[in-house]
Amino acid sequence: xTTLHPIETEGYEPEPWEIAWAESAKQVExxxxxxxxxxxxxxxxxHGWGGSWYEESHGxxxxxxxxxxxxxDALTHPTTCHRCGFAGLDADGNGPCAxxxxxxxxxxxxx
Length: 111
Hints:
Largest sheet: 2 strands, antiparallel
Oligomer: single chain
Order of helices and strands: HEE
Distance between the termini: 39 Å
Strand order of the largest sheet: 1-2
Structural class: alpha+beta
Strand content: 5-15%
Number of helices: 1
Helix content: 10-25%
């Protein structure tokens, strides 16, 4: 049986970017916790954003990247708001939400 030993970290000084990233991560987690407590019924699949974004390449010759929004389909009724979790959107699922004002412009904070 092999015994794993912890990596020696004595005398290790983190780089400034590591310290800044760790502080940013703490601030984002605090903001996310506050956001989740304010919107407890948000869509857990898209974290209240209403979907997700991704980039798609269009080939080698100057096509560049296109940012595409993929709507969340986790909620069963189109009028359900992804942020407040109540029926406040129009029949097509478009905002702004009549109850909380959400219009695909807010969600759980992330890094």
